[in-house]
């Protein structure tokens, strides 16, 4: 039992290291950091300019700016965890031709995938911090590291990571069915963007779509992140719910995502094996 | 013993045939691959939809939705310039096509022009669909009188944008995996600097001026001024059109110089035949 766990852990750690190397060793570390933050910082600046153009940066609307910036900052986890992860798995198959070896390794394929996804989430963490720094220093948001509710933030993020990894792994298995679906991870991340409450409250969405969005864990996660960071000055998507109630909804939505992800993963996995998707020649 | 007939074609004929030959797959293959037709349209559309919802969340005036829809349509071109022009030689090198270009009796300029013309045609259809769909979905109306001048500005912008793409293609020639990351890295900052989702004058004179190096910034702003009444003026539309027109020969000449230099360097370093670095 102990040996098995040690072996799983070693395999997981190797997958994390591999993911990190593939993501980052194409350039020098400093350039990689610049590359990693360019996108989220630019996105935050786009939203800040849009906000300023419309509101004139009026004091009464400042919580909405914080809403936009915190949402954009934490969105990096989805961008990396879903889009970049799916691209990485498709590259492993089509470009580097290593996916079949990872699949056949005694480690267990899901552990390999979780390891790869973990490395993506870890590399997103730098973007989150830098966007929040830009928000604090350049946009003068009232964010203080001393006043953050860390237990709430960490608990919400851990649950969200479980959802993101489950979704990303399932999506990647489904995408293996296509020969040229490179870029579809990005599209899925964009769709999630609409449903997550990252840059606008989900109440802005038309009724049935807003209801669908409320089944996703992402709006509850981002709501808790904003509450934890903005300490009472957050623009709330769910003003009638307490922190505990939002957290409970996050737990329920995460459990649902995990269950659905597991069922779909098993189906996609069986299909991939039957039809030879794991080592199919594709893309490159 | 038979003697092989050797027909000597004029360089101009080879150049023109190269353009047609390279444009052909850009038009035909791009439409055969249904998943990519969907991707090319869905990506800018979903991005624009997100920005429309942000404006709705901010209770913005209706004209701003028009900014976003036009920006979404132009995003399709920028995306194409980055991924299918700038990074193309890098992919071609990886899959072995670049070495065929090198040994064929044609020029890189012909190949790039063919790519550009084929892409312009294909992406214009897709961008048109995005514009139509977005305008209908969000009830956006345009000034009819500005349509013809806007089409003129649009054509100038396309020409300048694809000349920039040719310049980037030569610069990306040496890149392997970096080409992907560089294209990715250039996407969002340019979306910001070109004012894809907001009026360019909001960036201020200095940032807006620097951002004007990307033809999309001035072209899009001029088209908005011509089609959407009440667009805040960054520079008058006529001046913007003139500046975009100046960018066309500048980028074209720079692309030619850069291509020559990179080709010589690549031949010297043996980089033209390196696969998937």
Architecture overview:
The complex is a heterodimer of chains A (284) and B (277). Chain A has 284 residues and is mainly α. Chain A is built from ten helices and no strands. Chain A has one domain (2-275). In chain A, helix 2 packs antiparallel against helix 3 (62-94), helix 3 packs antiparallel against helix 7 and helix 6 runs parallel beside helix 10 (243-275). Chain A is globular, with a radius of gyration of 20 Å. The termini of chain A are far apart. The model of chain A has no long low-confidence stretch (mean pLDDT 89). Chain B has 277 residues and is an all-alpha fold. Chain B has one domain (11-268). In chain B, 77% of the residues lie in helices and 0% in strands. Chain B has helices at 11-32, 34-57, 63-86, 88-95, 97-103, 108-138, 147-171, 177-193, 204-211, 215-227, 237-269. The longest helix of chain B has 33 residues, at 237-269. Chain B is elongated. Chain B starts with 10 loop residues before the first helix and ends in an 8-residue tail after the last helix.
Structure, briefly:
Chain A is mostly helical. Helix content of chain A is about 75%, strand content about 0%. Chain A has one domain.
Features:
heterodimer; A: 284 residues; mainly alpha; B: 277 residues; 11 helices; elongated
Share in β-strands of chain B = under 5%
Number of domains of chain B: 1
| Helix content, binned percent of chain A | over 70%
Task: Find the structural class of chain B using helix and strand composition.
Answer: mainly alpha
What is the string of SSEs of chain A from the N terminus onward?
HHHHHHHHHH
Mean pLDDT of chain B: 86
Return Rg of chain A in Å: 20 Å
The low-pLDDT segments of chain A are: none
Q: Give the averaged pLDDT of chain A, no decimals.
A: 89
- How far apart, in Å, are the first and last alpha carbons of chain A? 41 Å
Overall helicity of chain B: over 70%
For the sheet with most strands of chain A, the description reads:
none
Q: What integer value in Å does the Rg of chain B equal?
A: 20 Å
Largest inter-chain interface? A-B, 37 and 40 residues
User: How many H/I helices of chain B?
Assistant: 11
Helix/strand class of chain A: mainly alpha
> Which spans of chain B of ≥5 residues are poorly predicted at pLDDT below 50?
none
State the domain count of chain A: 1
